[in-house]
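Still learning folds. Look over my entry:

…
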Amino acid sequence: MVGTQAEAVGLYIGLNLILTLVLAILVVRQRAKNEISLGTGGNDDMERAIRAHGNNVEYVAIALPGLIALALLGASTTLIHVAGLLVTVGRVGHAIGITNGISLFRQIGTLSTWIGVLALGVGCLWIVFG
């Protein structure tokens, strides 16, 4: 496992950046496949690809600064790994679920993400006020 706080944060930033890029590529592929230049064109696959990417960006945008804050506050690498793993696995699960219409993956991915984000928020507050 990655040792320092900065390395742990770097791991989850790297993984989530790559996931975001993969989801963006899937949107572009759907656009090319269905000849849709803007919006969804009423295509369900296009809608799912757009939402998988957009939803990922929405959560990653709040989670990654939380990871950075934990590292700057001197949190344990264990806390950083737990929160980072919950968010990352949650985002992958959600993307698989929404893209393929698998409700269980989507639900578990959302729950995992929420628990990870909660851990980030509580961890920051615990260190600041603890």
Q: What stands out?
A: The mean pLDDT is 96. DSSP finds four helices and no strands in the chain.
